[in-house]
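Figure 2 data, in text form.
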Amino acid sequence: MGNAIAHRGPDDSGIWSNDSVGFAHQRLSIIDTSAAGSQPMHSDDKRFTIVYNGELYNHNDFRNELAQKGFTFRSKSDTEVLLYLFICYGPAMLKRLNGMFAFAIWDQLKEELFICRDRIGVKPFYYHINKDQFSFASEPKAIFASGIQAKLNQANINEWLYYRHVAGNQTLLQGIQKLLPGHYAFVKPDGSFQQTRWWKLSEQIQNHPKIDHPYNWFEETFHDAVKSRMIADVPVGVMLSGGIDSSSIAASLKHSNFEHIHTFNVGFSDYKYDESFIAKRYSESLSFPFHGITVEKTNLFQAVVKSTVSYDEPLVHLNDPQILSLASAAKKHVKVLLSGEGADEFLGGYVRYKVFRYLKHPNVLNTLLSITPDRFKNTRIKKLERYIANGTINELIKSNGANYFETDFNDLNLPYLNITNTYRDEITREASQLYPKDISRQLLYYDQHTYLQSLNDRNDRATMGASLECRDPFMDYRLMEGLGTLSTKHLLKGRKGKYILMQTMKKHLPDYILNHQKVGFSVPWEMLIKQSEELSFEYQEYINSDIFEWIGLSRESVQNLFAKNNTQRFYQLQLQLFFFYIWRKYYLFEYTHQPANAV
């Protein structure tokens, strides 16, 4: 199993087992790179054994406390601190941790396994249960290496088609589940366990002290969140897009007197939305070394296949190959990258959030749309009409991040809205109870627990696939909890949203960053596929394949999908299914037929 995810930790590996349990660990050495930090790690009396993936940014805060309780440290690693905290306090220690983590601790005396995942799911934790064993890993491919066969979970294909990801603890792989973010469990010898939610964002927001000076609080906390993520015994760099999120991180590093920080960017030649020149200009203004790459033509196909295998599920954000290639290039200079992920969800940065503000008055919006002549309705307005037809506020919240809606699937003769996911329902209830009079905040809360989880999975796999760690300052728990208490005007006000970030960082950022129109990490796939001989071939194979029938689409639905009058409207869905085809060919079939490994 360890060999299947050797890319996650090529610096060291370790195996330990007894009659009841076996651990395999691949180490990416970042804090205390010596052998003293190797895993699996045991307590002095050998009762407890830990395997752990992640970083505790405040691990040094606990050393004196633990030393006073009699613990002797053999390393400077955060792994040892985490193990001793658990021995001393059990699960009660979790709320004191500032970091990203997924770990398991075996208690030899109780013959009991403790498993846990960080608050917002930055680090992954997958598991499989059958009558004979409980298997877990950072990636499903490691579980398949134990002899479990990879199969499509047909029950979740509808949700994946509609939302582009499967929310909660479910996946597209049969029998493979996720430990939910902010949850832990004790696994009994018979494999049974009950998950416990140790961190619930709505409760933290409700119990948070009032923030009297929001802008001062945000600036101080943000700078500290960035600074704390620089703790490492290896070089740290920044993924710099040229947008306000990553630029704010770079500006914060400069503010905290960090020097010679390497920055990394993916650009596109002959593409109107290329932002690499902005990132380069800003990086050079800070005297930070800039590294730009392109992923096109000859190297694109291999990047697509490699990122598909890394991700374990079909690519849906469609910039995974670029991030993986960026991480591979960055690996020559650094071992950790800082990312701006999470800023959009917690600060209200998506363009789609702007439209949602007006849904408090749906009748007015419907009237305006109904009297607007068709010749004045562009693609976005037509999409808005189809979106509003989705129904209740809860349904509009759930589908806000989707590319297609009920009317779209009906036009394709694909009535895929009969989707049941109790996790999505639970989160919408929490959101409405927390913000009963503010549907915009309900939407942000929902995205933080659903869409953001898929982004976290993408970032983890695309960077760890290159043996490089990704850290996200905007997902510092102090920011997540505190921002949830602030008035909506501090987030969604202004043309771009993220108002508190814009106001706080404007003294650190140049106008060409602050005033730049948001594009996001947009990839011109139509152009890139045409330019790549291998991808063009695969695309033609995909169109003529049995992939559509395999997931239950009728011939009529496929004809409607590729009809000339639907080319523009349904291109994103065509692309989504193309990457599903790539996943089935290069991942699912591979792990369906591979022989089992011993460890």
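Caption note: The CA atoms of residues 80 and 517 lie 46 Å apart.
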